[in-house]
Amino acid sequence: MSQELECMEGHRFPFEQYSMIEAFGMICPICSRENHKMIPCELKVTNNNVIELIQDYVKHSLNLSDELEFEILNYLSLNKDEYNRASVIAEELDCTYQLIAKRAMKLVERELVVVSKRDTRNYYQITEYGLNELEKRR
Ligand SMILES: [Zn+2]
What we know:
48% of the residues lie in helices and 21% in strands.
């Protein structure tokens, strides 16, 4: 499972471009440039084919040497049925909201976490893959 962005006109963007698109208020850059329309992009979960899954597995094989990333993942695993806001995680782990948001996005890129957007806020949840990887390191 991985995530990408898609606008209502069907333009799709890799998750790596999330921060760029978010900086423009989640507006699709292609619609804006070519059709002068403000079409919002939404986060989608995609299903990779098997070869991509294997490549992703190798590419993203977990390196939780980073203590904070481990702590975030651990927190999400303890609250896996909830949509977790960065500010709440930050309070719990005693660090800044910005730091959590940044690290959480790295975890999303590695498919350990999924992000969903409601109103203007990001909510994080651990993936099944993230739970498994975390379990291996306990
Ligand atoms: Zn578009």
